[in-house]
Prior knowledge:
By secondary structure, the protein is mainly alpha-helical. The protein has helices spanning 10-38, 40-49, 84-88, and strands at 67-70, 80-83. The protein has a two-stranded antiparallel sheet with strand order 1-2. The longest helix has 29 residues, at 10-38.
Amino acid sequence: MRRGDRLPWYGFAMTKKWIVLGAGLLLLVLAGAAASYIGPRNIIGILRYDTRREGELKLGDAAPDVELVALGDDTGAGASRIRLREKLHGRPLVLIFGSFT
């Protein structure tokens, strides 16, 4: 084939094949980079334990009554169970969950 000759009709199909192959390879590399950054154990945990769902509480609804376990107090007493509604007495309450490590 001489310089300037046009490719046969299958030239475009071969080019599209290489573009799709290159895009797939790039996607695979990016997924691998994300997995190495996040960590494979975290990805498995997210896939296995992520059970978030939309809640049913609306603005102004009363908080559900729950039972909490107090692990101990200043007197050295052992674990005890506390009902949330018994401690509130109609006062507002804000619960903050998080990791403090």
